[in-house]
């Protein structure tokens, strides 16, 4: 991947997750309407402090990606959040899946950009 394109995608992913991570603490983005099983699941995540942990991880990962410190590691860690977000929206809230798909696509592109860093762990 072209280094300038990778830089842009990496910073874009970093800003994306930083904004959503900080939002979990300061609530500056309006909440989307959810109901039924999606609301029950989201409420359970909130009560168990899982969303707080996700916010911390997203904030740290966003800063790491923006400043290019431990970006390869953070991209791997963010993959679990990306897949979870897509699965949540695909199964419980399909109307609001667009943001999760963007997150997943950016995360995959960043992983591809860092593929040389993963050579050691992918050896058979």
Q: Could you explain how this protein is built, in words?
A:
This protein has helices at about 5-25, 35-45, 50-65, 70-90, 100-115. The protein has one domain (about 5-115). It has five helices and no strands. The model has no long low-confidence stretch (mean pLDDT about 95).
Structure, briefly:
The protein is mainly alpha-helical and 124 residues long. It is built from 5 helices and no strands.
Q: Helical proportion?
A: over 70%
Give the low-pLDDT segments.
Answer: none
Q: How many distinct helices?
A: 5
Instruction: Describe the largest sheet.
Output: none
The fraction of residues assigned to DSSP E strands is under 5%
Domain unit count: 1
Taking all Cα atoms into account, the compactness measure Rg is 15 Å
Shape: globular
Mean pLDDT over the residues: 93
Secondary-structure element order, N to C: HHHHH
Question: For the terminal residues, how far apart are their CA atoms?
Answer: 24 Å
